[in-house]
Amino acid sequence: MLLKIIIVLLFIAMVISLFTGFGFMVKDQGSTNRSWIALGFRLLFAALLFGTVYYGLNTGKLQFSAPWDATNRAHDRAMREKAQQNQQQNQETEQQP
Prior knowledge:
By secondary structure, the protein is an all-alpha fold. The chain has one domain. Helix content is 81%, strand content 0%. The chain contains 3 helices and no strands. The chain is rod-shaped and about 90 Å long. The termini are far apart.
């Protein structure tokens, strides 16, 4: 749950940096470097967001659970059941003399 909160906070920080940079660009009209600094922060937040999502997916703390992905889950479940049945059959044939 903490990982999801971190991801949401990083995304919000990215959006805030986007609008802050736009405001600096409109106000300053290129006379200062504040819009470049906002761009740097936005890139930093994007890299942290990408790294956090990558970490979550690789460790299994984040998983895909899209509602349109139900067919793949049903297929995976059927394949696991078939593998279990094959394993049971193999154990039964090993036990027979």
